[in-house]
Amino acid sequence: MKKINLFWESLDDVTTVSKRELFLGLVCCALAGFVLGTIFSPKKMTIIGSNNGNGRWDADEDEQSEN
Question: Are the beta carbons of 57 and 51 closer than 8 angstroms?
């Protein structure tokens, strides 16, 4: 607990951050948000497209017609 308190007290120092570091930090946070959002999102069966016969549903119908 003493180490945590020492670390917490050391955070009072004022530091400068370059624009590059700030930008990279924001990019990392955004990418981490996308990844976590994808991992923890509810699973859905959403198909985006016109269903014009170029998807896996067309292959499923071909297999059913062969049986």
Answer: yes
Average pLDDT estimate for 7-26:
91
- List b or e across 40-62, with b for residues whose CB sees 16 or more CB atoms inside 10 angstroms: eeeeeeeeeeeeeeeeeeeeeee
pTM above 0.85, yes or no: no
Look up residue 23 and give its two tokens: 């930008």
Question: Which whole number is the average pLDDT over 4-31?
Answer: 92
Distance, in Å, from the CA atom of 41 to the CA atom of 30, rounded to the nearest integer, reads 16
Q: How many CA atoms lie within 13 A of 43 on its CB side?
A: 0
